[in-house]
Amino acid sequence: MHVLVIENMPQSDLGLVGVALREAGARLDIRKAYAQDPLPADCDGYDAMVVLGGEQSALDDALYPYLPDLTLLMRRFTETDRAVLGICLGSQLLARAHGADNHLGTAREFGWQAVALTPAGLADPVLSAAGERFPVFEWHSDTFTLPPGAEVLAWNDTVPLQAFRIGRASYGMQFHFEAGTAVIATWKEIYKDQIDRIDPDWLSRSARLQARHGAASDRAGLALARAWVETILVLQGGEVASAHCGRNVSQG
Question: Which residues pair with 7 in a beta bridge?
């Protein structure tokens, strides 16, 4: 199993998704796109793709000129039935890739929040693994419209579009389900100043919040990660795994 991983900022961490990929024996090709690592010319040779979060918006092409090529590559993975996972910024880019509108600065969430599944989510093989309702870590201010042909899988009152699927196995998840308590502990140290600007009291309350939500969030996140990895395993040895991706990504 060969998985392409796109990092959009320093200190990226696959977290619980990394745990599930290691359990499955996945071979990772990690590209630090923010640091000008080139994107692959196509998706041939890969079984799946993970696009992690970042501080930029999904429309920051002027500052991050690789974003249009990345969205095209995500679309090609979907069109050839390879599994795609977009987390936070990655979900916003996946939505853009499939014709949705990105809305900037309209949907701020931070910290552990409750997320509930839609009827489609309850029937979905990945989202249903976490249960009907679960806590998960959020850190974003942008959102998006639902791409044509996609299904809304999870929601809450603040952001009605928390997760969606397009095609068989391309998932956009606005929330940071990969961020288990170990990852969040690192974020608290690295991003202390940013967190204080968002909520000056959050760090002082974080131990109590983690005691209340952390274990359940970790369980849900690992269940989601393992279930998504199962969508990759479906491709092994099948016709889809050898589907030609095409060479449509520019290399400028």
Answer: 32
